[in-house]
């Protein structure tokens, strides 16, 4: 049976999506200083199966179209945990996944030179400039949906720690970039309990209680801007540790909140629902 995990045509949904999206992407106007600061985003990135989920592709793209096209994008992904704090190069993509059709390992996302963005980031934070590392799938996969023309410069920032307070501080240091047309993104997955996936989740999209309860808790805390509650997720959130047996897909959220004008102002959910039982809640910060 064909599904996003077993597509009849690998990435066929993405091919169809491009036919519809590219004309609209070309018409998107560019950010100007009069637009004011861009929001900061947290998104659930989806991995290669995103390319086989037409509705999800369109949700990400439509979200991008609600904003002017950024001058550049700085993204923090769950898949690059590295200290000291490091900044990617304009290098080849990192295909950091296994077991998929060869089509996904030949996909390209050739974005423009991002040296200006690198200088902007370096003026705000002490960062190690990586010589060759490009974007990993937590970055290039969702960006291929949001900005399919690949015409926005992108750099990826590593996560040097999983400590929420330190990630909030990093986000705060990046805050002023938003007023310069830089889109700051934390890329993870609102629920990411891969070791606990069941056959019913894969075949029928069953949502386990540990996923729905964690999602409801996170949505409520995010809505009221309760950063302290979110930071205590390992001890306070229902569904743990099943929802996040490792912290890497939740903690990019703290870079996003730190980059907000007011981390306690609440957020606007832009995408919700589930993929193989995992909450894919995504949001943007409020002014």
Automatic annotation (TrEMBL):
The keyword Zinc applies. InterPro entries: Extradiol_dOase_DODA, Xdiol_dOase_suB. One of its GO terms (molecular function) is zinc ion binding. Its cofactor is Zn(2+). Residues 57-262 form the Extradiol ring-cleavage dioxygenase class III enzyme subunit B domain. Keywords: Dioxygenase, Metal-binding, Oxidoreductase, Zinc. It comes from the Bacteria. Belongs to the DODA-type extradiol aromatic ring-opening dioxygenase family. This is 4,5-DOPA dioxygenase extradiol.
